[in-house]
Amino acid sequence: MSGIVRLQSIRQRLVLSFGLLVALFFAAGLAGRASTARMSEVIGETLASVQEDAQLAARLSSAVTQELSSAQRYVETRDSVSQANFRRMAREAHNAQRAMNLHDGQSAREVALVAGIDAKLSDIEVRYARAHRLADLSRRAEAVAAGDAARASVSALLEDVRQLGMLKANAVTDASLSLREDVQQRGSWMLVIMVIAVLLGVLVVLSTIGWITRPMQQLAQQARALSAGDFTARVQGDLPGEFRELADVLNGAAASLSRVVSVTTTTADDVAHSARDLANVSEQISASANQMASSMTEISTGAESQVRQLRAIDEALHAIRSNADEVRDGAGELTTLAGEIEHSAQSKRGEIARSLGILTTVRETVREAAAQVDALNETAADINKLVATVGRIAEQTDLLALNAAIEAARAGDAGRGFGVVADEVRKLAEQAQAAADDVVRLTRVVTSRVSATTRAMEAGVAQVDEIEGVSRNVDAALDSISEAAGRTRVAAGAAVERAELNANIVGSAARSVQSVARTAEGYAAAAQQVSASTQEQSAACEQMSSASTQLLHGSEQLRELVGALRADAA
Amino acid sequence: MNCRKVTLVLALLATSACGRDSRPVLIAAAGPWEETYGIMNRRGIELALAEVNAQGGVGGRELRMLMRDDKGDGMRAANIAAEFVGNQDVVAVVGHVNSGAMVAAARVYDQGLPALSTTASTPDLTGISPWVFRVISSDSVNGLDLARYARSLGYSRAAVLYENNSYGRGLADSFERNFDGSIVVFDPIPEDGDSDMEPYIAYLRVRKPDVVFVAGTEPSGAALLREARRQGLDTPMLGSDGWTGLVQSPALAEGVLVGAPFTPADPRPDVQRFVTAFKERFGVAPDGNAALAYDATRVVARAVAEGGASREKVRGWLASRSQDTAFPGVTGPIYFEASGDVVGKGFVMTQMRNGELVVNNGGRR
């Protein structure tokens, strides 16, 4: 049936089919009603015709009987009433016979029989008429003989009348038979229509069931595919309108879920990438910290060698002082030498003052590095805050996914797919949370290492302070040397050789101090290295920041999608 | 349209529409062919048939006639009618001749075969079937004509003898109904010529009517006249169309009055041409029976030629005749009332003089 008429929806199909059925039953009812009406009409007509026929036959029979008895009586009595009756009944008999002849639906046999009755009756009438005239002429014997001759033909006439009656009876039987056949035929037709209607009904039911079952199976398959996580499955083919709508909705759901999965995957990739970037940055920070540590070690070592050199200076100067004691006993000739020593010591003091200035610069540089490290700490704290935000978003996402799962569970079988999706989203959120936790942990490591570096650098600064203190002590010592030299120049000017020896000693002291200056320069270089490392750390922190931003962006997309998902589920 | 003319005019057309169907057209006729009036009927039919076929048939097709003898008997007539109706080649019937036979047969022709009766004049036929027509006027008209004619001759006491059949009873009833005088005798008589008529004539001699009106045919008429002659009854005798055949018995019938649907003395050229042809072919002058049968046959032939060779078309053509399209018959213009009765034809009142029916009242009424 659907091959002939293509109907777009189950409703149209059912309405049309049942409309057709109702029309068929209505037609059957109408046909039955018309049939009944027609039957009663036909029965009425047939009965009327049969009744009329019977009346005419009775009329004919009665007229013939009366006519003949009147005719016979006239032959015997010659009374005028019998004569009048004879003529009246003759007319009546012929009229009845003519009426029968004119009556509709006569068979040729009946027509012939009626004509035969007419002929026989006419003949008998003629015979009686002749008998009557003979009687009128008072020829009684002849009249009686003629009457007897007439009466002899009567039995043949009555036989014809009887046959006509039988024919009429047969006609009635035939009529009733044909009526019965007609009734049966009409009944059969009604039955055929009813059977057709019933068959059509069964056809409609079967075809509708078939029509509904196939799309139901397709939709169930689609739902199973969705709940199994296959969002690429689509319901295809020609479906009834209602199923088409449902299939379109399912297809749309599958498409948007597919899109969500795709975007989630990209976002996860982004997050992973960002995490990798963060790991790299952390490694760089770590390397920078190591470099800083080694630089600080170098500073520390340089400081130790300064201490040692200054001790050597101290020893040398101690030797100078003992030598001066020996010289003091000498002579005044050392005075000039002492004056020169004083002068030399004064100039050494100037040099030490210069090296002190350099040390101060080194300390400032170290302090600046420390400040940079502090700033780095603050940045790390900011990262922690951002990551904490990511963590919160992940938590919310988790919570929303949980809600979505609950809604999906409430939606029943249809929501099973959404439940799975929600679970996936929740897992993603947990992964994001874990990633954020990793970032926090890494940031803490970096921060602690940077703090350690800062502490090392502060220790370096303390050591530089100590070196400065030593240098100031050296300066004080040189001052006292200068004083001693003055006193030497004043008190002992005699021992020139010794003064020269002192000059050599002081020369080596000067070399030691130069060495101190070189060490200080090494400090400066190390400080510069610390500065560069710090800059590198700063750049790494920027990278880490941008990676965090990407992480945040991914999370926002994730949240947006999850929000849309909930809107669909709602 | 006359197909023959078309073929002549369009001689170049080797195959014309006319040449396509050359099968004969079959019509049927039934009557009491051995009775004198039956013989005259048959002669009229034969002459008309011969003339039609001599002029090219109907629409180029030969007209053939299937003849059956019903002996004037209703039972036979009904059976013959059934045979005609059953024979699908028969497109129309000429006949029957007798009123009783026609009344019986009419119920059969009602199944769908057009029949044009020649001389059945009983009032019972009026409106009996849409398939039944007649060229003779009804006896309800004829009886009126005859009753007035009898009265106009000054007769006031009439005796009525009638053949106890449809024709006789109808005509006698009509006469009795319309006769402005007294009916002293009203007796049925036998149809045949062998029965004993003696008591009727003896009784008439006792009753002494002014005129005897006989509603019958030639056999009973001849017997009656013979008995009257034997008993010396000299009362004037008046007969209807059934008595036109008495021209065959001039000695017996001398002086009888006959109301006839036709007289060969009619001076119209058509009538004289017919009378001449009839005399040439059969050696005797035609009577009313022959003239009516001749007209009926020619009307049917024209119906087949102009209407078509089918039962429905013939009936349609007959029923659609009107005063303007009436067929010009030798018995007068022929067209029909819805009842199948012919319209507007009356009797010619004649008297038998030396074996001929001589117009007695100055011609056609």
Describe the model.
The complex is a heterodimer of chains A (570) and B (365). With 570 residues, chain A is mainly alpha-helical. Helices cover 92% and strands 0% of the residues of chain A. Chain A contains nine helices and no strands. In chain A, helix 1 runs antiparallel to helix 5 (154-227) and helix 8 packs antiparallel against helix 9 (496-569). The model of chain A is unreliable at 565-570 (pLDDT under 50). Chain B is of the alpha/beta class. Residues 5-19 of chain B have low confidence and may be disordered. Chain B has twelve helices and 14 strands. In chain B, helix 3 packs parallel to helix 4 (99-109), helix 5 crosses helix 6 (166-178) and helix 11 (288-307) packs across helix 12 (311-319). Chain B has helices at 3-9, 36-54, 74-86, 99-109, 139-152, 166-178, 198-207, 218-231, 250-253, 269-282, 288-307, 311-319; strands at residues 25-31, 63-69, 90-95, 115-117, 132-134, 157-163, 182-189, 211-215, 237-239, 257-260, 327-329, 332-334, 348-353, 356-359. In chain B, the strands form three sheets. Chain B has a seven-stranded mixed sheet, sandwiched between helices. Chain B has a five-stranded parallel sheet with strand order 2-1-3-4-5, with helices on both faces. A two-stranded antiparallel ribbon of chain B has the order 11-12. The longest helix of chain B has 20 residues, at 288-307. In chain B, strand 11 and strand 12 form a beta hairpin. The interface between A and B is medium-sized, with 28 and 32 residues.
